[in-house]
Structures are given as structure tokens and as C-alpha cells.
Amino acid sequence: MGMLYEVGDGAIRKDNKKATELFKKCAELGGTALLVPTGQLYERGALPSASPDRRAVELYSIAADHDDELGLLYLAAMTEQGRGGLRKDVDKAVALYRRAASFGNLQAIEKLRVLGREAK
After folding, report:
1. Pairwise CA distance, residues 81 & 66, whole Å
2. Alpha-helix runs per DSSP H in 1-120
3. What does the pLDDT read at residue 1?
4. pTM of the prediction?
5. pLDDT of 70 above 90
6. CA nearest 109: which of 120, 117, 119?
7. What are the φ/ψ torsions at residue 9 (nearest 5 degrees)?
8. Domain-embedded: residue 105
9. Alpha-carbon distances, residue 28 vs 31, 65, 117 (angstroms)
10. CB contact at 8 A, 119 and 112
């Protein structure tokens, strides 16, 4: 249902606020699967938004708050680059990469290696 409000669908008008509420409720019940792919669509410009990076960060943050490894990974990248309204903060990004790596995320483990930090 959150996705319907996210993109709008004839009978349902696009409403990011309502979509966010529904995504959060879904995430509380363990359903984070659509958050990262939807954030990626915003990043790529495939979904219309006045500030697509900010919307992507919002969705990645909801996923990360529920220990979704891809949400953590993408939020870390946005934090590292200072995108989506986030202040560039490599230390915070490293902490997020470490959390993603703790779930065995190979991209996060590799990113920590490139940054010269160990996955703990």
C-alpha cells in the first residue's frame, strides 16, 4: 500500500507523507523489502521528486533503523558522500558500513577495506 501512495495510481493520489507512514509501519513488522529499491529509483531519477536524494535518504534511514543490511549500506554511502541533505561524515559512514558488514554484506566489507578500516 505504501508503494501505491509513493508513486500514485489513478485512484490513489501520490502522497509521500502517507507512504512514509505506511513504510514505517511495515518496517516495524519486519517488512523493509521495498524501501531500498524505492530509494534507488529516486536516486536514479526514475521517480519524480523535487529532492530525490533526500527522499532516498529518508527511505534508506527507515530500512537502516530496522537493521536492513542494504538500507545500512546505501545510507552509509549517502553519508560518506554528503548527499540527500546529510552532512559528509566518514566516521558515521564507517559505523553504518560496519553494521552492514556485521550481517555479512560483502559490499560493506569491501568498502571498509578500501577506506582502510576493519570490519569489527
Report:
1. 22
2. 2-7, 16-28, 35-43, 52-65, 69-81, 90-101, 106-114
3. 66
4. 0.84
5. yes
6. 119
7. -155, 80
8. no
9. 7, 9, 31
10. yes
Q: Which domain holds residue 70?
A: 2-87
Helix axis angle, 106-114 to 90-101, nearest 10°:
140
How many domains would you assign to the chain? 1
% of the chain with per-residue pLDDT over 90: 57
* Per-residue pLDDT tens over the stretch 22-57: 878 887 888 888 889 889 988 988 888 889 999 999
- Residue 11: inside a domain, yes or no? yes
Which candidate, 74, 73, 80, 72, places its Cα nearest to that of 56? 74
Within a domain: residue 44? Answer: yes
